[in-house]
Amino acid sequence: MKKRDYPLDRVYGLLESGPVVLVTTVRKGRADIMTMSWHTMMEFEPPLVGCVISGRNASFDALKATRECVINIPTRELAKQVVGIGNCSGREVDKFDKFALTPAAASRVQAPLIAECYASLECRVADTRLVNRYNFFVLEVVQAWVDTSIKQPRTLHHRGNGVFAVAGETVRLRSAMK
């Protein structure tokens, strides 16, 4: 066995499985985007997503106030925008303008979809009991959109310290258990 000690502050890079997403919010007429990788599916129906949003982010304040957002799933083609969005503040810059992204009207929430993203999930806050302690929101997906022209989306998966994996290969395995 060739395993070695691994830094605890990098463990999340081993467990991150979901794609990096762009969360959009709107508050007082101002739309914002934040990059997020700390999320997890919690329930199938209704679809519930748990996510951590730092209390230091402008998106935290908007989500807490409006109780709605859109989770947009970008592909590899948007990698530079994903990183750039994660490295600046929506309090100081219009991220749609700075990163040449197109806001599109959602059908069930006020926050915009990002037209260039592969998929968009309109969400409403379903539970805030863990927000004050952990900045953990439980969101219910109330409408989902997907670009059906993209057959194999190459999504980004954060590994930590500026390193990303790109999903691409799909493997279909049939269960041997009956």
Description of the molecule:
30% of the residues are buried. The protein contains 5 helices and 11 strands; from the N terminus they run H-E-E-E-E-H-E-H-H-E-E-E-H-E-E-E. Strand 10 and strand 11 form a beta hairpin. The chain has 178 residues and is α+β, with helices and mostly antiparallel strands. The protein is globular, with a radius of gyration of 17 Å. It has helices spanning 12-15, 58-66, 79-86, 95-98, 131-134; strands at 21-27, 30-36, 39-43, 48-52, 68-73, 103-104, 113-114, 119-127, 136-146, 156-160, 163-166. The strands form 3 sheets. It has a 7-stranded antiparallel β-sheet with strand order 2-1-5-8-9-4-3. A two-stranded antiparallel ribbon has the order 6-7.
In CATH terms, what is the fold-level topology? Pnp Oxidase, Chain A
Share of helix among residues?
10-25%
Alpha plus pi helix count = 5
The profile of the biggest β sheet is: 7 strands, antiparallel
CATH superfamily: Electron Transport, Fmn-binding Protein, Chain A
Can you write the helix and strand succession as a string?
A: HEEEEHEHHEEEHEEE
CATH class: Mainly Beta
How many strands? 11
User: What is the radius of gyration computed over CA atoms, rounded to a whole number of angstroms?
Assistant: 17 Å
Question: Taking strands numbered 1, 2, ... along the chain, how are they ordered across the largest sheet?
Answer: 2-1-5-8-9-4-3
